[in-house]
Amino acid sequence: MENCGRLFGQIAAEAGVTANRAKLAVYLTGLSSQGRSIDYAAGALRKSPETIKLYAREFLIDFADYRPFAKKRDKGVDVEPKYLLAVVAA
Predict the structure, then answer these.
(1) 32, part of any domain
(2) Which residues, in sequence order, are bridge partners of residue 66?
(3) Number of domains into which the chain is organized
(4) What are phi and psi of 66, to 5 degrees?
(5) What is the model's pTM?
(6) Which residues contact 85 (CB under 8 A, 6 or more apart)?
(7) 31-82 per-position pLDDT tens digit
């Protein structure tokens, strides 16, 4: 039987983070793909904007108003996230 889904526990274990941290990162990735801002994400999760910026830097998430590694990427430098979440089964 082929399983195309992944559990957050599996994703988190591979990345070396907790399952809750992985869930938050995936949720924030979704918000950023919708063009939401840091303030919107902070309000939705009831966390400080600085906490959301920390997640953005660690998981390489670009928000509409905050792109943590934009200057490096614009210069052609390859930037890797601190924690890589493999959400889709390989």
Answers:
(1) yes
(2) 63
(3) 1
(4) -150, 110
(5) 0.82
(6) 11, 15, 22, 25, 26, 59
(7) 999 999 999 999 999 999 999 999 999 999 999 999 988 888 888 888 888 8
